[in-house]
Inverse folding.
């Protein structure tokens, strides 16, 4: 069941990144000038962490195991899987809006802000749905043999697809992110 703790802590990391993104568009709304590299860093982190690491682990290990033990979760699991795809679509929209904003300037900011806020609300809601509905069912219905493979995938890098290369890559990305985020979010200079 170690995977449950790991999933929750991965959701907490995600929540911190989503909060940072919302805080930064608030800064721009207050007249500050953005450092676009910070958004690129945040988005790269999210892309690697959420769409290439966290969600595939859920899709591949957690969802099928819960579905096999509790067929009544079929609708919930289908919806969560659909949300993984929709999140990727919203992410691409946000990225395009960032590109337009960076290239064309302030007139494109509202579209960027709106797509970013739509994305953060969506991913926050998704993680809550998992925590409130899926994880309690997983705790209830999964057996020790199920947890073995799920814990291995989420835990100590025993899965070749999610090996320790990922862990070191995330540490490097995360450290760069913290260094670039403006204070008080990180160690970078405040936006002016
Ligand atoms: Fe998910
Ligand atoms: Fe999740």
């Amino acid at each position: 069941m170690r995977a449950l703790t790991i999933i929750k802590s991965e959701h907490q990391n995600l929540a911190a990144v989503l909060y940072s993104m919302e805080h930064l568009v608030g800064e721009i709304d207050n007249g500050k000038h953005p450092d676009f590299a910070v958004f690129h860093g945040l988005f790269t982190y999210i892309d690697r962490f959420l769409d290439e690491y966290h969600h595939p682990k859920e899709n591949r290990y957690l969802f099928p195991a819960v579905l096999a033990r509790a067929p009544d979760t079929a609708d919930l699991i289908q919806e969560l899987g659909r949300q993984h795809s929709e999140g990727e679509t919203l992410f691409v929209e946000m990225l395009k809006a960032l590109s337009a904003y960076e290239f064309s300037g302030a007139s494109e900011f509202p579209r960027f802000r709106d797509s970013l806020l739509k994305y953060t609300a969506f991913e926050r809601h998704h993680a809550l749905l998992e925590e409130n509905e899926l994880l309690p069912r997983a705790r209830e219905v999964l057996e020790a043999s199920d947890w073995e493979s799920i814990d291995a995938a989420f835990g100590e890098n025993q899965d070749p697809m999610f090996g320790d290369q990922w862990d070191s890559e995330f540490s490097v990305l995360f450290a760069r992110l913290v260094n670039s985020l403006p204070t008080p979010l990180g160690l970078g200079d405040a936006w002016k």
Summary: The mean pLDDT is 90.
